[in-house]
Design brief:
Elements: E1 4-15, E2 18-30, E3 35-39, H1 46-53, E4 61-70, E5 73-74, H2 80-84, E6 91-94, H3 98-101, H4 108-117, H5 124-137, H6 143-147, H7 156-168, E7 174-178, H8 186-203, E8 206-211, H9 214-220, E9 223-228, E10 231-237, H10 238-243, H11 248-255, H12 295-299, E11 304-307, E12 310-313, H13 315-331
Parallel strand pairs: 3-8, 3-9, 6-7, 7-8
Antiparallel strand pairs: 1-2, 1-4, 4-5, 9-10, 10-12, 11-12
Helix pairs in contact: 4-5, 5-7, 7-8
Length: 332
């Protein structure tokens, strides 16, 4: 049994004129110690999927259907009191901006000690010792000094290391990292991702990494999900998808990477933009931007088809697979 299993998750936002569907029956799983990447442009639904796991969707958003099974128990059906035992304890989350996560008027040590004591019956001294140990693990210089400092006294990279240390305080089984290096410069980003990967491997912690950076996903994760307009359109082993992407959208994301361009030529970009939730196209939501779109793509939502070890939601991929099958039968 998977450590985390999401089944047909449907998330909506209640607004005037009717509900807007942010997630459209997405399903995926995460095993113990596995590293999973969620990829897509802004507005694809990556962060909504992550927040839904711990039922952190703010009103008017709500989970309209599906299950989120953690060790077989449905998190979507739990009360706030039951979820508080899971949040930050067994499933930890690293948010995009550490300054929005850390309380500016409390010292680092106070915040870490409070996080521990919220879940464990433990003395303040013992909690402080654990906090100091975690700061050492994330390689913060002068960790004893940092415990008594405030967030504004630390650099962006050090604040993000503190956030990772807080996520590790209670030895969680899963860490959800939502764009954990967005606000950092490139060299610090690489350091933080290498640190997070090393800590997860040492502790056998499952990692769900939400990002738009395919380069990071290719280096860190074992499996990946590609999301578009609230739906998973391709999922499977990371190396297999990066080396031979099946869906036109995934191919476009890979071709848009700077290293894929030729010197002196304009970088490739996918034409158009992600549709708003209020104006999701009929059929395949990607069809207005797809060079391979047919009338069928405009009329019917594609079902998943398996290509190798990858599941893809694309009419053209299904057509190619069926044609190859017919050719093999004719030649055999």
């Amino acid at each position: 049994m998977a450590l985390l299993e999401v089944k047909n998750l449907d998330v909506r936002f209640a607004v005037r004129g009717g509900d807007l569907q942010a997630l459209r029956k997405i399903s995926f799983s995460l095993d113990k110690g596995e590293r999973l990447g969620l990829v897509g442009e802004s507005g694809a639904g990556k962060s909504v999927a992550a927040f839904s796991i711990l039922n952190l969707i703010a009103r008017p958003g709500y989970i309209a259907g599906g299950e989120i099974l953690f060790e077989g128990k449905n998190l979507a059906a739990m009360s706030d009191r039951e979820l508080r035992k899971i949040r930050g304890n067994r499933i930890a989350m690293i948010f995009q901006d550490p300054m929005m996560t850390l309380n500016p008027v409390l010292s680092i040590g106070t915040q870490m000690v409070e996080a521990i004591k919220a879940h464990r019956r433990i003395s303040t001294k013992a909690a402080r010792d654990i906090a100091l140990d975690r700061l050492k693990q994330v390689q913060i210089p002068s960790p004893e000094k940092r415990l008594d400092q405030y967030p504004h006294e630390l650099s962006g990279g050090m604040r993000q290391r503190v956030i990772i240390a807080i996520a590790l305080l209670l030895d969680p089984e899963i860490i959800i990292a939502d764009e954990p290096t967005t606000a950092l410069d490139v060299t610090i980003q690489a350091e933080i991702m290498a640190l997070l990967l090393e800590l997860c491997e040492q502790r056998n912690v499952a990692l769900m990494l939400i990002t738009h950076d395919l380069g990071v996903v290719s280096q860190v994760t074992q499996r990946m999900l590609v999301m578009y307009a609230g739906r998973i359109i391709e999922q499977g082993p990371t190396k297999e998808i990066i080396n031979d992407a099946q869906h036109p959208y995934t191919q476009g994301l890979i071709n848009a990477l700077p290293q894929m361009g030729e010197p002196g030529r304009r970088l490739f970009q996918i034409p158009g933009a992600m549709p708003s939730l209020a104006k999701i196209p009929t059929g395949c939501p990607f069809h207005p931007r797809c060079q391979f779109a047919t009338d069928l793509c405009k009329q019917e939502m594609p079902e998943y088809v398996t290509s190798g070890n990858v599941d893809v939601a694309c009419h053209e991929v299904r057509k190619l697979i069926e044609e190859e099958k017919q050719q093999r039968e004719m030649t055999s």
